[in-house]
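Incident log, structure service

09:12 report received: a user says their structure output differs between two submissions of the same chain.
09:20 pulled the input from the user's history:
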Amino acid sequence: MASAADIGIDLGTSNVLIYARGKGIVLNEPAVVALERDTRSIRAIGTEAHRMIGRTPSSIAALRPLREGMVSDFELTSSMLHYFVTQVIGKRMFARPRAVLSLPSGVNEMEKRSISAIMFEAGARRTQLLDRPVAAAIGAGINITPIAFLVIANGDVKLLQLVSKPDSTDRLVNLVPDLVDKVTGLFKKDKDKEKTEGEETDAQPED
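09:34 re-ran on a clean worker, output below:
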């Protein structure tokens, strides 16, 4: 069981990662919850639940509460988060670690307050919530204060704000179209490539 080191949590669509300071990754499990269809009573979470995908009886469903970078079932996401954090922190009365939690898109302010309460109940002394693109930018070593960045992380897109300077608004207005053009240009290039490859495949003579 991990000690009361500060922890970082990546609440991902496919997997949940928990990092403990000085110990590295201490938990890496699938973001899957298995539950009874009728009562919604949870039967398994994480790796055990993942093993049940496609193998469960009709009365049990193995679900992913996060889909395409967004929370699709907040209740299951909360239960899953509480379970994973408790596994790492354990039941502590005094040595409660601080936590940083990256959240996907679509989590409103009320849900964020609920998540903070869940983290405290699970054993965290204090939890700092970060949008996933912001966490991705910090993890990549990007200084997010002097200039603006358009960050894309697993389907989440976020423009990080400029510092407050007299010309910051003008620079931001001028910067956004260029960033959008570059990103959409990359998407268009990939789609054109797929279209060309598809046309070449269709044009091959039959045997």
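09:41 both user submissions now match this output. Likely a transient worker issue. Closing.
09:42 reviewer note: The longest helix spans residues 168-203. Confidence is low (pLDDT under 50) at residues 162-173, 199-204.
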